[in-house]
Amino acid sequence: MKKLILIFILFIGVDSINAQNVEFYDSNFKAYLVGNSEINTNGDNEIQISEAEAFTGTIDCNSRNITSLKGIENFKNITELICYSNNFNDLNLFYNEKLKKINCNGSGIQYIQISQCLELTELLCGNNGLTFIDTSNNLALKTLYCSFNQFLNNLDLTHNPNLEQFYTAETAIVSLDLTQNKSLKLLDIGGTQISNIDLSQNVDLNEFYCGATQLSNLDVSKNVNLKILQVFDNALISTLDVSKNTALTYLSVGNNGITNLDVSKNLLLKTLFCGDNKIKYLDISKNTSLVQFSCWGNKLTTLDLSKNSDLTFIRVSDNELETLNLKNGTNNLISFFQSTNNPKLTCIQVDNPAASENYPDWQKDTTATYSTDCGLSVSDIHKSELIIYPNPVKDVINFSDELSNIIISDFSGKIIKQNYYSISDINVSNLPKGNYIITGISKSGNKISKKFIKL
Length: 455
Description:
Blueprint: H1 2-19, H2 27-34, H3 49-54, E1 58-60, E2 80-82, E3 90-92, E4 101-103, E5 111-113, E6 122-124, E7 143-145, E8 165-167, E9 186-188, E10 207-209, E11 228-230, E12 250-252, E13 271-273, E14 292-294, E15 302-304, E16 313-315, E17 323-325, E18 336-338, E19 347-349, H4 353-358, E20 362-363, E21 369-371, E22 388-389, E23 396-410, E24 415-419, E25 423-427, E26 434-442, E27 447-454
Parallel strand pairs: 1-2, 2-4, 3-5, 4-6, 6-7, 7-8, 8-9, 9-10, 10-11, 11-12, 12-13, 13-14, 14-16, 15-17, 16-18, 17-19, 18-20, 19-21
Antiparallel strand pairs: 22-23, 23-24, 23-25, 23-26, 26-27
């Protein structure tokens, strides 16, 4: 009888000890915790409930092929959970009331419970399978990153007045109410199906990213603190007023339907990307802080960059340019320049033509020439009906009227060939390929200047 009583007592004791240990479903999660001496303070092969409750630090178990965080509920006093790049379906943090930061990006999560995390300020839950996130109790939330949840289609942020950064790019969300988020400083809705957005209450907004959405118009007139505005790939947007956004330093409006862009009030602008639009005229003479400028694929006919001495990147290819002035005194700072596919552009005004020819990442059409003063080629042009042909020419240029005192020069002003007699054609077969100016005196005494291309 005594023997049976002893066995019973031992059984109860063992069972009592086991009841004090945290139960885990995933061996990788348990192994991480057991191996953390700040958590496993007694150094055994288990985590006692008392050890879990005593821990007030960060659990960082990222990238450990964990399929379940069962047992996390015992860590009631942790302040930060980092568990990104794992593989579990749900994340129940109902009992983790002290959490301030959670990073569970890229873990396959379809459900997350954070209703009791009242002190939560940062939630990073992007690249998962979430369809819904309830943040109605998380009034302290400042950062919410839920981008790349392709099935996420419902999000109510009206209970998050302290939200400062919100990322929801590449989700299924079609509408947002941000009228209660007056502290918002960063907003990313890129790649969503949102077609309309009211930003009138978000006056503190510094950064707004809305590329590749369904927006047909955008009003940022109240967002006077905007520094970064990215509005590319919104084919339905044809106009954009940034005249009130005087703090802008970065503006990207490429691949839209914009026909007119006024940046004369954006004096702090350092980056302007407006390629693949329908812009016919653009004045950036007041944007003297501009460093990067890309306006390829538009309908520009003239462009003056002579006031933009900080430029290091220029792309103006695929336009209808006839004049281009790059002479800003600091051409040596321009690490990339491209003006190809502008067939009407025969002269590009630069600081030093010889140096420009040797810059490794400067690209132009072969029919265009660098010159210190392209204006010389057109300043004395007399508006007459004189025609030179063929142009481009290979051998002989013909004149529709006789010319005398003929001078042929390149775009740098160097005289290549002269003829003082009155003639109706001139042989240029010995000239190198390039762009030239022919000047002469007509029978009526007018000075005539014409450009031609030698093939």
